[in-house]
Write a structure and sequence with these properties.
This protein has 170 residues and is α+β, with helices and mostly antiparallel strands. It contains four helices and ten strands. The chain has one domain: Pnp Oxidase, Chain A (Roll). The longest helix has 15 residues. This is General stress protein FMN-binding split barrel domain-containing protein.
């Protein structure tokens, strides 16, 4: 794999592309204790500033843990395209109606009895501080065929079909 570190606009574009393509991440809190607490979370949006938005219950352990320590780690995987993303950042909890309205999706109705008017609804914004990505340019099928070809011929694969690097959005 080649290294391609991205900054500012290009970094945000790659972050948005990979996170919104995967949609689901492992959202880890309480990072100072092992094992870390983690749970799958569905991404609402990666905005134009590189913030990631999630809907959560005010009564969830994740919200309690964020109130104690707002450092979080997110792991996105899009196995169908061999795309991966690791995000370390800070989480902020919102309870105001405007933010809830902006981030609400009909899918969230499954978790909240009163919909977006449920008093337990909160929105979490994660602001990335350190982000690293892995992306196969050719996609999973071509990459797999490259490995199969190398195995059959006894040669090694051409690692130039993938790229990885830091995403510096600030």
């Amino acid at each position: 794999m080649s290294i391609e570190n991205l900054t500012h606009t290009k970094a945000i574009e790659k972050l948005k592309e990979l996170s919104e393509s995967a949609r689901i991440c492992m959202f880890c809190t309480n990072l100072t204790e092992l094992p870390m607490n983690s749970r799958p979370m569905s991404l609402q949006e990666c905005d134009n500033q590189g913030n990631l938005w999630f809907i959560s219950s005010a009564e969830s352990n994740k919200n309690f843990e964020i109130k104690e320590e707002n450092k979080v780690q997110l792991f996105f995987m899009n196995n169908s395209n061999s795309e991966y993303l690791s995000i370390y950042g800070k989480a902020f909890i919102y309870k105001d109606k405007n933010t809830i309205e902006e981030q609400w999706s009909s899918l969230a109705n499954a978790w909240f009895e009163e919909g977006k008017d449920d008093p337990k609804v909160t929105v979490i914004r994660v602001t990335p501080e350190e982000t690293y990505y892995w992306d196969t340019k050719a996609g999973k099928f071509i990459t797999m065929m490259s490995f199969v070809g190398a195995a059959l011929t006894g040669s090694t694969t051409d690692n130039s079909d993938g790229v990885e690097g830091n995403l510096n959005i600030r």
